[in-house]
Amino acid sequence: MKRAVIFSILFSLALANAETFTLDTRDRVRDADGDWAVRQQKVLWDAKATAVIVCDMWDLHHCKNAVGRVGEMAPRMNQLLNTARARGALIIHAPSSCMEFYKNHPARKRAQAAPGAAVQPKAIESWCHWIDKVEESQGYPIDHSDGGEDDDPAEHAAWARHLAKLGRNPGSPWKQQVALIEIDPRRDAISDSGIEIWNLLEARGIRNVLLVGVHTNMCVLGRPFGLRNMARNGKNVLLVRDLTDSMYNPASWPYVNHFRGTALVVEHVEQRVCPTTTSDQLLGGEPFRFKGDTPPHVVFMIGESEYNTASTLPMFAKKQLEYRGIRCTFVHVSENDPNDFAGIEALKDADLLFLSVRRRTPPKAQLDLVRAHLAKGKPLVGIRTASHAFDREPPSEHHALGQVRRRNPRR
Predict the structure, then answer these.
(1) Is 393 a domain residue?
(2) Last residue of one domain, picked from the residues 231, 255, 283
C-alpha cells in the first residue's frame, strides 16, 4: 500500500512537470439542417509524445509565386519549430525527393536508424489520394487540374529560364529544404519515407502530430506522411492552418483569390480529414497571415423596418460573398435609437458601402464617415429605400445635411 501511494505521488509529479501543449482546435460537423458548422475544442498534448512534420518546404519550385509564399511563411514556421523542439517535441523535416542532399546529415541518419515498428500500417509507404469514399465523392472545393500555378504567364516563362540557368530542372527544381528553416543535427530527423517516419513515431511513443508546410491540396494531404495517412492510422493529427499554402490558380473554379482558395481547402480538411489549429497556440500573438491576404471589405449599413434586410442581407453575404473570401461587417441601427449606427467606424477601411437604410438621420460624425468613404472614390451600393436613406427632418441640430429635402407631396 505504501509503495502504491509513493508511486502515485511520483507519477503525478512527473505529469505535473511534463511539458504540455494546450491547443484550440477547429473542425466542422453537420448541424441539424445538414449544413457544416464549426466545432471548437481544446486539446492537451504531451510535448514529448508530439511530432511536427514539415512537408515539402523546398528551396525552389516551378511556380515562382509559390516560392515567394514559402519564403514569406518560413520565418514564422521556424519560430514554431524552435519552440516545439525546446519543449520536447520531435521535429521531422520531410522535403520530398531531397534525401540525396542530406545523405550524410545526422538528422537523416537518425531517421534511417529508427527501429522498425512492430506493426506497419497498410500502404504507409504510398500516396493517399482520399481518406475514404465519402471524401472522394465530395471532392475538392477548388479545381487544381491545371497544377494550380498562379504565376503571370510571362513571369512564369522567365522563371523557368532562370531555373534552367541555375542548372535546375524547371519542372522539379527542388534540391533541399528552404534554408530559412533550421535543422537541429542533435535532435531532428529528416525523411520523406512514410515507413521511416512511422518507425520514428512508434519508437518514441508519439501519438500526436502537427503538420506544417505545402501544398495543402496536394502533398500535405496526400504524401505517405501526410494528413490522410496520419489520421486513418490513428494518430491525433492537426493541420497548422496558418502555416500552409495551396496550389490554386484564381483563373480556375470557383474563381476566388488564391488565399480564399487555400481557406476552402482548409475547410475541406476540417470536414473530412482532421481538425486544424494555428501557430499562435504555441507562439502567442496573432496567427500568421500572408501580406497579400487582404480580402475586400464590405460594410453593410442597415436601418429599415419594412423589408427585414437585417436578416436577409447577412444570409446573402454568407452564401454569396464570404464564401468568395469577401470580409463582411454589419452595422445595424441601434435598438434604442433609430438614428444611431454604432460601429460605423468600420467604414474607415471598407472597400464598399452597402446601404439598406430608410429615412434615418444619423449624427453628423457618423454621416461624415460616409462622406469620407465617398470622397476617396470608393463605391456605394444602395437597394430599395436607399434613395431616401437620410431624407427626413432631423430630430436635433446634429443633422449633417443642412437643409433637409422634404418629401414631395406630389410623388
Answers:
(1) no
(2) 283
Which cell numbers hold the place of 174?
A: 527542388
Quote the CA–CA distance of 216 and 218 in Å, as a whole number: 6
Task: Examine residue 128 and state whether it is found in any structural domain, yes or no.
Answer: yes
- Residue 100 — φ and ψ, nearest 5°? -60, -40
- Contact in structure between 262 and 244 (CB atoms under 8 Å): yes
Query: What CATH number should be reported for the domain holding residue 108?
Result: 3.40.50.850
Has residue 410 been placed in a domain? no
> Is residue 328 within 8 Å of 298, Cβ to Cβ?
yes
Residue with cell 439598406: 356
* Residue-number span of the structural domain to which 314 is assigned: 297-388
- Distance from CA of residue 292 to its chain's centroid? 14
How does pLDDT run across 258-316, given as a tens digit for each residue?
999 999 999 999 999 999 999 999 999 999 999 999 999 999 999 999 999 999 999 99
| 8 Å CB contact between 373 and 380 | yes
Contact 385, 359 (CB under 8 A): yes
